[in-house]
Write a structure and sequence with these properties.
The complex is a heterodimer. Chain A is 55% helix and 0% strand. Chain A is mostly helical. Chain A has one domain. In chain A, helix 1 crosses helix 2 (27-37). Chain A starts with a helix and ends with a helix. In chain B, the strands form 6 sheets. Chain B has a 9-stranded mixed β-sheet. The longest helix of chain B has 29 residues, at 705-733. The chains are: A mainly alpha, B alpha+beta. The interface between A and B is large, with 48 and 57 residues.
C-alpha cells in the first residue's frame, strides 16, 4: 500500500508539472489560465468550446440557460431552404 | 451458512429467474409460489438449525462435497433443500416482478337455480375491473356490474393548479357516485381463463346482474387489476391525453434539443373530467421540447424531487417491428417504465402549460428529493462546471462520460479526426489528417473500448485504489478509511446513475474493502463471493435485469477475470523458448487475418489451415529444441513482469469468457480490435480517469483549486487525446464484424466447454484420473461410450437448433420493416438465403444504415453466414444504400441487378469492392468469398432448385433487354405459392410492365406494392394533382387486380429522409394507393410495414401462412393479420 501511495504521489507531481508545461506552451490553455486569473472566466476559450455541452450548467454570475427553440423545417421559408441546398 | 453454500444459493436464485423467463407462470400461481418459497425457506432454516446443533465439525461438510470423505445424507439433504429454495425463490421473485397481481374480488355464477355474487374481498382503491371466465362460454352471456365510485378530483387554487399540502399530499375532493358498467357481452366460444377488461372505474361492487338467461352454467371471477402505468398507456398514434400528478424521481437527462424526465405518478386521470386513479407502480418517461413553457426550470438537476402536474398522451412503447430488432417496450419495462409522454408545445400562448411545477402550500420553493441524491447531483454539476472550464471539446465530453457516467453528453460528439475541430476555440494540438464523420462513441464501439464509457468495475476499482493510495499517503489506518471510501463509492454510484454495472462494482468493491480491511481476505476470494452477492442484491430489486446486457456483460467480465485469468496464465507460461516464438507467430497470423481478411476467418478452410500451421510450427519448434537451436533460450510469458503477463492473460480471459460469446448474442457483432486496443486503452484509462477525478475534486476547492484543476486537466488533455486516437485508429485498422448470434443452447455448450477448460485440474485429478485407475475395463468402456454419446448429443442438438431456425423444405420470406426503404429476406427451401435490396443509408439528421441496424441482424440472428445472392432492384438509395455494408459484412456469392443499377456499382467504394472480390483475384478465391455480378433482364433466373418435387424458381420479370431505366421486378415461386416484388416501378413503368408481362406470370398470392405505395410522386412538382386518385386507380389498381393477390404488402415508413420536400405529398399518395388496392382487391389483406412491422410469409409449396411482427409481439394492430390457406 505504501508503494501504491508513493506511486500516486509521483503521478500527481508529474501531472502537475506536465500540466504547467502544457499551459505555458499551448496558447489556448495560456489564455484559459489568464481568463481565470483576470476574473473573466467567460472569456476562457475552453469554456467557450464547451458552450453546447450541458448548457444548463453555467458560470456563477452568468444568466441562466435559455434554450433556443427548435426549428420546424416547414417553418423555414422555401427560398431560404432552397438556398441552403448544396 | 458456509461460504460455498451462500455462493451456490445466489447462483441457484439466478437459475430460478432464468427458468421463470423460459417457463413463465401466470399471475394465479403467484400465491402458491410465495407459499412454496416460504415453506421451503422455513424447512431449510429449520434443517440448518437442527444440523448445527449436532456436534459435528463444519469443515467435514465442505470436505464431503469436494472429494474427501463420502458425503453423508444429512449434508446432501441440506444442499438439496438450499438449492431448491434458491431456485424457487428466484422463480417466484421474477413472476412477482412481471405479473401485476390481480386481486380476486369475488365470483359470480349463473345456473338454472339463479345467479349468485359471492364477494371475497373489498376493493382497495378506485380501479378498473377484470372479468375472467372459469370455464368455456358456450352461449352469449350479457351482464352488468353495479357498484359505487368514490371519484377523486384535485382541489385547485386560484391559478387552476392542483393543491399540494404542506406534507406533500395532493388535496382532493371526493364525490360519491353510483357506478354501472353498462352492458357487457361475453360472446359464445370464449375459452376458459379469458380476461375482459372493464374500463370503467369502480371503488366498490354491490352486485352483478345477468341481462339474459343462458341455459348453460356460467362461472366468472371478478378481479381488481393493479393500477400500473402500463394499464393506462394506450397504443397508437393519436391518443386521448391523460393528466398526471406526480414527482420527478431521477436526474433529468438534458440534451441541447430535448430533456427527458422520469416521473413517478401518484395519480392519473385517464379520461378528461374522469376520476383520478392512485398509481401503485411504474414510472413515466416524459420528453420535453425546449419550446415547452417552463423548460428551463425542469432542464436541470435541480428538478429532481419536484412535484409536477402534467397533461399529455400516455403511450405504451412499441415492440420491435422486426424479429431481431431492439424491443423498446421490453427495455423500458425492465427499467420499470410503463409508458411515455411527449409533451405537446401549446400553439396558443394563452393555453395552459402541459407541465407545471407545484409548490406545497405555504412554501416558496418546490420540494426536493432525497438529501443524499441531491448532494450527489450537486457535486456532479460542480465537477461538470470544472470540466467545462479546464478541458476543451471533445475531450470534455469524454471526461464527463468516463468520470461521471454522462454518456448522453457524448451522443453527438464526432471523432477527434473531424475537420470541424480545426475551427473550434481550442483546436487539438496534433494534426490528425484523416477526415471522418463518425461519432466518438461509434469509434469506441468499433475498436472494442466502448466499455470504458459504461461506469463499471474498472472505474470503481481505479477510484478505490486512488482513494486507498491517498489515505495511505497521509498515513491513515485502513480500519478508519474503509468506511469513507465506501461512502465515496455510494456517492459515485448515485452520480453515475446507479446502473447495474456500477451497482455491481460498488457492492463488490465495498465487500472487498470490508473483507480486506477487517478480515484480511484475498482479492480473488473476495471476488468469487462478491459477484453472486452483488448479483442477488441487484436482482432482488429488479429480476428482469438478469438478461440486460449491462448486467450480464458486467458480471461476465468480472467472472471471466476471476476464473479464466489463471488458467490462461498457466497455459501460456508453459510455452517457453521456441514454443513461445510459435505462439507469437500464430497470434501474428491471426491478427493479420483479423485486420486484413476477416471474411477468411469466418470460413472453415481458415481454421483448418490455422490448425495445420499450428501443428507444423509446434513440431518444428520441438525438433529445433532437440537439435539445440533455441535462440530465445527459456524465454516465455513468465519472464515478463508479472503485472504485464497477468494483464495479457486477463485479456484472453475476458475475450474468451465474455466478449466472444456474449457480444454476438446481444449485438450480433464482436469488436475484434478490442483484444488489441485494450492492451493500451485499459492502462491509459487508469491515468485519464484518476487525473480527471482529481481535477474535478480539486477544482471544488475555493481559490487555488481551479488552477490545480487546470494544470491537471492540461496534462490529462494530452493523455485523453492519446486515448481518443486509440479509438480512432483501431476502428480504422480493424473492422467491426458481424457474427452469427448464438442460441441459448449454443451458449450453454460454449460455457460448459469454458468451464471444463477453467476447472480441468480438479476435474482431472479428483474425478477422471481416480475413476480411471479404480474402474474395471468394462466401466471404462461404458464411460468412454457415455462421453461419445454426450458429444454426439451435443452436436445433434446444435444441428437441431439450426434446422428449427431454417427448416428444410420450407420457403420463408420476410419483408422487413425498414421505413421508407426496402429489404426482403428470402430463405429458400434448400436453406440458402437471398436478400432483395439493402435498405437505405440516411445521414441526416443522424446516420442510419438500415443494413447495419436491421437487415444484417435479421440475417445473423438466423445463423446465416453466406448470401446466395444480393439482388438490388433499383438504383434509388432506399434500395441500394446498404450494398457496401452487406458486401463487407458477409460472403455474397452473386450480385444481381438491372441495367439501371450498373452506374451505382461503378461508383466508389463499390467498384473497388467488386474488383477486389472478383473471381479473378486470388485473395478471395482462397477464402471462397468472391462476388459474381450478374446483370438481369426479363426472363433471367436468379436462383432455382427443387424440393420434394416442388420447384423453387426466382426469376426476373423486368426490365426488358436494353432498358436502362426500369427497376428489376422479381417473381418468387415455390410449388403453388407465388410472390411478386415490383420494386420502384413508376406509374409509366407499371403500365409498360403490365403490357409486356404474360398474365399468368403476374398471378401471385402475395404482392409487394410498387414504389412503397407512392408511385406517381415522380410526376409531382408541387401539391397533389387532382387527377392522382384516378391515375392510381387506373394504373396501380389495374396492376394489382391483374395479380389477383390475396395480400398486398406496402414497404412504407416515414418518407421524409428520402423525400424531404415532398414527404407530405408522398403520405397522401400512399393513402390513395392503399385505397386503390382495396378497391382493386376488396378481399385481399392490405398490410404495411410501418403499422404491421415486418411481414413474414412461410410456404411449404402448397399453402402459405402470413404473419406480421407486431401481431406476434402482442402489439395492438388495426387489422386481422393472419392468413392461413391450403395445407396449414
Amino acid at each position: 500500500m505504501e508503494q501504491g501511495a508513493s506511486k500516486i504521489a509521483r503521478m500527481l507531481a508529474f501531472a502537475i508539472l506536465f500540466g504547467i508545461a502544457v499551459t505555458a506552451f499551448n496558447p489556448h490553455y495560456r489564455q484559459a489560465f489568464l481568463a481565470i486569473a483576470n476574473g473573466t472566466p467567460q472569456e476562457n476559450p475552453i469554456w467557450q468550446s464547451n458552450r453546447e455541452y450541458y448548457p444548463d450548467i453555467v458560470l456563477p454570475g452568468m444568466p441562466p440557460y435559455q434554450p433556443a427553440p427548435s426549428v420546424e423545417p416547414n417553418s423555414i421559408p422555401a427560398a431560404t431552404r432552397a438556398a441552403a441546398q448544396p | 451458512m458456509t461460504r460455498n453454500k451462500l455462493i451456490t444459493f445466489c447462483y441457484l436464485f439466478i437459475t430460478g429467474i432464468g427458468l421463470a423467463m423460459r417457463y413463465t407462470a401466470g399471475p394465479d400461481a403467484l400465491g402458491w409460489l410465495w407459499a412454496a418459497t416460504l415453506a421451503l425457506a422455513a424447512i431449510t432454516i429449520g434443517a440448518f438449525i437442527l444440523v448445527s446443533q449436532r456436534a459435528r465439525p463444519a469443515a467435514d461438510a465442505e470436505l464431503s462435497l469436494y472429494g474427501g470423505a463420502p458425503a453423508d445424507r444429512t449434508q446432501v439433504t441440506l444442499w438439496v433443500l438450499l438449492l431448491l429454495t434458491g431456485m424457487v425463490f428466484g422463480y417466484t421473485r421474477y413472476i412477482a416482478f412481471i405479473q401485476s397481481p390481480d386481486t380476486l374480488l369475488g365470483t359470480w355464477t349463473h345456473t338454472a337455480q339463479g345467479q349468485a355474487w359471492k364477494e371475497r374481498r373489498a376493493m382497495s382503491t378506485t380501479s378498473f375491473l377484470k372479468l375472467k371466465t372459469q370455464a368455456a362460454v358456450t352461449e352469449d352471456v350479457r351482464l352488468r356490474v353495479v357498484g359505487k365510485l368514490e371519484a377523486l378530483q384535485p382541489i385547485r387554487d386560484e391559478n387552476n393548479l392542483p393543491i399540494l399540502n404542506e406534507d406533500g399530499r395532493w388535496a382532493f375532493s371526493q364525490y360519491n357516485l353510483k357506478q354501472d358498467s353498462g352492458e357487457i357481452t361475453i360472446p359464445a366460444g370464449t375459452p376458459a381463463n379469458t380476461e375482459i377488461l372493464i374500463q370503467k372505474p369502480f371503488t366498490s361492487i354491490e352486485r352483478v346482474e345477468a341481462l339474459n338467461t343462458p341455459t348453460a352454467p356460467v362461472h366468472l371471477r371478478i378481479l381488481q387489476p393493479q393500477n400500473t402505468v402500463s394499464l393506462f398507456a394506450r397504443s397508437g398514434r393519436v391518443v386521448v391525453p391523460v393528466s398526471v400528478l406526480g414527482r420527478i424521481n431521477s436526474d433529468p437527462w438534458v440534451y441541447s434539443f430535448k430533456t427527458i424526465l422520469s416521473v413517478q405518478p401518484e395519480y392519473i386521470q385517464y379520461q378528461p373530467d374522469g376520476p383520478y386513479f392512485k398509481i401503485a407502480r411504474q414510472n413515466i418517461r416524459v420528453t420535453m421540447d425546449p419550446a415547452t413553457p417552463g423548460y428551463e426550470v425542469l432542464a436541470s438537476s435541480d428538478a429532481y424531487g419536484y412535484d409536477i402536474a402534467l397533461t399529455g398522451e400516455l403511450v405504451s412503447a412499441p415492440h420491435s417491428s422486426n424479429k431481431a430488432g431492439f424491443d423498446q417496450a421490453n427495455y423500458l419495462e425492465s427499467y420499470n417504465i410503463g409508458g411515455q409522454i411527449r409533451l405537446q408545445v401549446p400553439r396558443d400562448a394563452e393555453a395552459p402549460a402541459p407541465i407545471q411545477v407545484i409548490l406545497p402550500q405555504g412554501a416558496d420553493r418546490p420540494r426536493t428529493g432525497n438529501g443524499l441524491v441531491e448532494f450527489s447531483l450537486y457535486l456532479r454539476d460542480e465537477i461538470v462546471r470544472v470540466i467545462k472550464q479546464t478541458t476543451p471539446q471533445p475531450n470534455a465530453a469524454f471526461h464527463g462520460a468516463l468520470t461521471l457516467g454522462l454518456r448522453y453528453g457524448m451522443q453527438n460528439t464526432v471523432s477527434m479526426a473531424n475537420d470541424m475541430y480545426k475551427n473550434t476555440p481550442v483546436p487539438p494540438p496534433i494534426p490528425l489528417g484523416k477526415h471522418t464523420d463518425r461519432l466518438i462513441a461509434d469509434e469506441f464501439r468499433y475498436s472494442g473500448i466502448n466499455h470504458v464509457l459504461a461506469v463499471s468495475g474498472l472505474h470503481v476499482t481505479i477510484i478505490t485504489v486512488m482513494f486507498m493510495g491517498i489515505f495511505a499517503m497521509v498515513k491513515v489506518s485502513k480500519k478508519v478509511y474503509v468506511p469513507f471510501i465506501i461512502f465515496a463509492l455510494v456517492i459515485f454510484a448515485i452520480i453515475t446513475g446507479a446502473r447495474p454495472s456500477t451497482l455491481r462494482a460498488v457492492i463488490m468493491n465495498s465487500l472487498f474493502l470490508l473483507t480486506w480491511g477487517y478480515m484480511s481476505e484475498s482479492i480473488r476470494s473476495s471476488a468469487l463471493l462478491g459477484v453472486p452477492i452483488a448479483a442477488i442484491i441487484i436482482l432482488l430489486q429488479n429480476p428482469a435485469m438478469a438478461i440486460d446486457p449491462s448486467f450480464t456483460l458486467s458480471f461476465g467480465a468480472i467472472l471471466s477475470l476471476a476464473i479464466l485469468t489463471q488458467p490462461f496464465f498457466d497455459l501460456f507460461k508453459r510455452l517457453k523458448g521456441n514454443d513461445f516464438a510459435v505462439l507469437v507467430i500464430l497470434l501474428t497470423v491471426l491478427t493479420w487475418a483479423f485486420a486484413r481478411h476477416w471474411l477468411f476467418v469466418t470460413t472453415l478452410r481458415f481454421w483448418v489451415f490455422y490448425t495445420v500451421l499450428g501443428v507444423v510450427l509446434f513440431a518444428l519448434s520441438r525438433m529445433l529444441t532437440r537439435m539445440g537451436f533455441t535462440p530465445l533460450r527459456d524465454y516465455g510469458l513468465a519472464n515478463l513482469p508479472p503485472g504485464i503477463a497477468g494483464f495479457i492473460a486477463a485479456q484472453f480471459g475476458i475475450q474468451i469468457g465474455m466478449m466472444v460469446p456474449l457480444s454476438p448474442f446481444y449485438f450480433f457483432r464482436w469488436p475484434v480490435a478490442g483484444a488489441y486496443a485494450n492492451l493500451i486503452a485499459i492502462p491509459l484509462v487508469g491515468v485519464v480517469l484518476q487525473l480527471s477525478m482529481l481535477a474535478g475534486l480539486t477544482g471544488l476547492i475555493p481559490g487555488i483549486g481551479i488552477y490545480i484543476a487546470l494544470f491537471l486537466s492540461a496534462a490529462n488533455w494530452i493523455f485523453s487525446i492519446g486515448f481518443l486516437l486509440i479509438g480512432h485508429y483501431f476502428s480504422r485498422w480493424f473492422i467491426y464484424p458481424f457474427m452469427t448470434k448464438p442460441t441459448v443452447y449454443d451458449l450453454g455448450v460454449y460455457f460448459a466447454a469454458v468451464a471444463v477448460f477453467a476447472y480441468w485440474r480438479p476435474l482431472w485429478f479428483r474425478v477422471v484420473r481416480p475413476f480411471w485407475r479404480r474402474a474395471s475395463s468394462s466401466r471404462r468402456i461404458i464411460a468412454c461410450g457415455s462421453l461419445a454419446v454426450l458429444l454426439l448429443g451435443i452436436g445433434w442438438g446444435c444441428q437441431h437448433e439450426q434446422a428449427q431456425m431454417r427448416p428444410e423444405g420450407e420457403l420463408e420470406i420476410s419483408v422487413l420493416s425498414v421505413g421508407y426503404a426496402s429489404g426482403i429476406m428470402v430463405n429458400t427451401p434448400d436453406r440458402r438465403t437471398i436478400l432483395i435490396d439493402s435498405g437505405n443509408f440516411v445521414t441526416s439528421p443522424t446516420t442510419r444504415i438500415d443494413a447495419e441496424r436491421t437487415i444484417l441482424p435479421q440475417i445473423f440472428a438466423k445463423q446465416i453466414r453466406s448470401l446466395e445472392s444480393l439482388v438490388i432492384t433499383s438504383p434509388a438509395a432506399e434500395h441500394s444504400g446498404g450494398i457496401e455494408t452487406v458486401f463487407t459484412a458477409m460472403d455474397v456469392k452473386h450480385c444481381d441487378y438491372p441495367a439501371a443499377v450498373a452506374p451505382v456499382l461503378a461508383k466508389e467504394p463499390l467498384a473497388s469492392i467488386l474488383d477486389e472480390r472478383s473471381p479473378n483475384r486470388i485473395k478471395h478465391r482462397i477464402s471462397g468469398t468472391t462476388i459474381t455480378p450478374r446483370m438481369l433482364t426479363a426472363g433471367d433466373i436468379i436462383y432455382q432448385t427443387e424440393c420434394d418435387g416442388k420447384p423453387f424458381i426466382m426469376e426476373a420479370l423486368g426490365p426488358r433487354e436494353g432498358d436502362t431505366q426500369t427497376p428489376l421486378s422479381v417473381r418468387i415461386q415455390f410449388g403453388d405459392f407465388v410472390m411478386l416484388v415490383t420494386s420502384d416501378l413508376t406509374l409509366a413503368q407499371q403500365q409498360e410492365f403490365l403490357a409486356n408481362t404474360p398474365p399468368e406470370k403476374l398471378k401471385a398470392q402475395v404482392v409487394v406494392a410498387p414504389h412503397h405505395g407512392t408511385a406517381g410522386l415522380e410526376t409531382v412538382k408541387i401539391g397533389l394533382p387532382d387527377a392522382m386518385p384516378q391515375q392510381l386507380a387506373n394504373i396501380t389498381g389495374k396492376l394489382l387486380k391483374a395479380t389477383e393477390a390475396e395480400a398486398v404488402v406496402f414497404e412504407f415508413g416515414n418518407p421524409r429522409p428520402v423525400e424531404p420536400l415532398l414527404y407530405k405529398v408522398a403520405r397522401k399518395i400512399h393513402g390513395l394507393t392503399r385505397r386503390a388496392a382495396e378497391d382493386a382487391l376488396p378481399t385481399a389483406l392490405n398490410l404495411a410495414t410501418d403499422t404491421d412491422g415486418a411481414i413474414h410469409i412461410q410456404s411449404d409449396g402448397v399453402g402459405y401462412r402470413l404473419t406480421t411482427q407486431l401481431s406476434e409481439t402482442g402489439t395492438e394492430v388495426d387489422e386481422p393479420t393472419l392468413l392461413e390457406i391450403g395445407g396449414w
